[in-house]
Amino acid sequence: MNARINKYRAEPVIFHTLNGLLMLAIVVVTLYPFLNTLAVSFNAGVDTTRGGIYLWPREWTMKNYEAVFITGKVLHAFWISVARTVVGTLLGVLLTAMLAYAVSRKDYMFRKIITILVVMTMYFHAGLIPSYFLVKDLDLLNTFLVYILFPGGAAGLISAFNMLVIRTYIGTLPESLVESAKMDGAGDFRVFASVILPLCAPVLATISLFIAVGQWNTWFDTFLYASSKQDLSTLQYELIKLMSSTTQSNANPNLTSTAAKDTASMITPVSIRAAITIVASVPILVVYPFLQRHFVAGLHLGSVKE
């Protein structure tokens, strides 16, 4: 009997130990690529070619980051990317949520046909060339507005997938909330702003992260629609050009000063690629925790008992 009791007491300990070790292994496997890239970005480029860089730089240097920022174009492109990400995310989430709320109303007679038309955009697209001529005919070439209306060079301001996600979430909310607000004299805009949006905080945070990451990472729309205007160049596009030029010539062709040439001679494609990866990923890593905390909150805000 005592042996059986001791066995039952030992099973939770064994389970939690093995579970903890498994989670630790997953964390190590997940973090190692990023930490390795961070170490390479701070290691001397010539020394990196020898290999053997894991989690800690062997020869510390800031030359890789100097090569990224030395021309000044990257810093300006950074603020363009920040502006397009903020404006595009806010408008994208707002308009998508408004459309999702409209098609979620059972008393709206056109909700089915609108849903079908929006969903069709997930499966059918005119293609790259018609999209380019559309942007050209709208006089949006080399304008900041093209980043908002045509992010990524293909998708529009409203994503069908995001609309379906928000609509499904709205469908889980008690209908009595909307009915109570309308009985108090609130219109659809007031119901949407005061009732629906606060309750949709978790799904809106998730959609915001999707849109923000998409806006931040895309560079192809800059190449298509604004490559001839340097003032509208985005961070990702500048980093793509920098990495391409470094890979081809092992030096930045825009560097003209003696200090710049010295910097270029000490970097390699591997080291500059690591620095570019860190520069491009850090802003999203900083923003993510502020959105992640909303994922599991806000579901029952203002709810009523049935």
Helix share bin:
55-70%
Average pLDDT score = 80
One letter per element, helices H and strands E, the order comes to HHHHHHHHHHHHHHH
The CATH class of the largest domain, by name, is: Mainly Alpha
User: Termini, distance in Å?
Assistant: 50 Å
Rg computed from alpha carbons, rounded to a whole number of angstroms: 25 Å
Tertiary shape = flat
> pLDDT below 50 for ≥5 consecutive residues: which ranges?
251-265, 296-306
Protein name: Carbohydrate ABC transporter permease
InterPro entries: MetI-like, MetI-like_sf
Subcellular location: Cell membrane
Keywords: Cell membrane, Membrane, Transmembrane, Transmembrane helix, Transport
Give a written overview of the molecule.
The chain contains 15 helices and no strands. The chain has helices at residues 2-41, 45-48, 63-69, 73-104, 111-120, 128-137, 145-149, 160-171, 175-183, 188-199, 201-217, 220-225, 235-249, 258-265, 269-292. The two termini are 50 Å apart. 28% of the residues are buried. The chain crosses the membrane at residues 12-35, 78-101, 113-133, 145-170, 191-213, 270-291. Pfam families: BPD_transp_1. Keywords: Cell membrane, Membrane, Transmembrane, Transmembrane helix, Transport.
